[in-house]
Amino acid sequence: MAQDGLSDLVGRAISWLTLVMIGALVWEIGARYFLNAPTVWAHELSTMLYGGFCILAGSYTLRHQGHVRSEVVYGLLPPRARAACDVVVYVLALMVLVVFLDMAIDFAATSWAAREYSARSIWQPPLYPFKTVLPVAVGLLALQVVAELLRALLRLAGRDDERLAPRN
User: Of the residues 15, 35, 70, 150, which has the maximum number of CB atoms within 10 A of its CB?
Assistant: First the structure.
């Protein structure tokens, strides 16, 4: 499915962007301990980047079935019963994500309207670009949930088509 490719693309992109976060932290450590000149921006930047990476990784993790589930019970079930459990979980997840997406859009829009800046440090970076990541990530996760829900419905109907199975 096309959503799988989008989830993979986002997952790979943010994995490379972690180097930016690591670079900021290494810079901070070097400046603080070797030059006795700590930065005002590195810790806050790494915190904001890490938060963005974590929520953006949700759709990639779901696409590769990396989220936690109770395998003790789930693994004992026959394939169609597992598909039925997946359908219930994905429908519930989609309902929650739709509500969360609405809230996240309002959250980001309010930040953009106020041109919100951080008050955590004297650096005071703009927060609205980082707060925009939240609705984007929730939207990507919701799209991946729809893809997984369609797969589960096909498995439940007995149409386990290998072309629709997620590839690692």
Answer: 150
